[in-house]
Amino acid sequence: MSTMGVLKYRLVMRVNPIDKGAPKRWYARAVQDRTMDFEDFVTHMAEHNSPYSRGVIHGVLIDMLACLQELVLDGKSVRLGDLGLFSLGISGKGAETKEEWSVALLNDVHLNVRNTKSWSNAELRKRCRLSELKTYEDGSEVEEDPDEGGMGI
């Protein structure tokens, strides 16, 4: 199934993260216009000509999430088909020597999701049209007409 989506973006003035001394420049930042909660996602799936009821889809996904969490917390990577490879990652501060390093230097534990071939960055780029989301002085937002076809990058 090939779906074309619209990637909305907003232009923002930012410091170059690599060269903090450089003058600020305009960058595009992807924006989402809404967050779908789990129940909305289940309903969306059930309404796509699925032979499974909303309750069955809900139960299977709840069990999948519980098992995914159990497995990644046990140090395993889990590949969910074309969706991605899920694993845990850590971040923290370094130490001068191995002996000086301790768990106290850890800042964060986070979920990593690495995309796969059909969800690769290049494939996602092909399947998106760009649309600038502009905010006016009164705070209202207007979506510009998206470009035709892919991003053309």
For the largest beta-sheet, the strand count, sense and barrel status come to: 4 strands, mixed
Quaternary form: single chain
Number of strands: 7
Task: Please state the CA-atom Rg, rounded to the nearest Å.
Answer: 21 Å
Along the chain, the helix and strand elements come as EEHHEEEHEE
Average pLDDT confidence is 84
Number of helices: 3
- Whole-Å distance between the termini? 22 Å
Shape: flat
- Sheet with most strands: strand arrangement: 2-1-6-7
Structural class: alpha+beta
Strand content: 25-35%
Share in helix: 10-25%
Which parts are unreliable, with pLDDT below 50 for 5 consecutive residues or more? Answer: 145-153
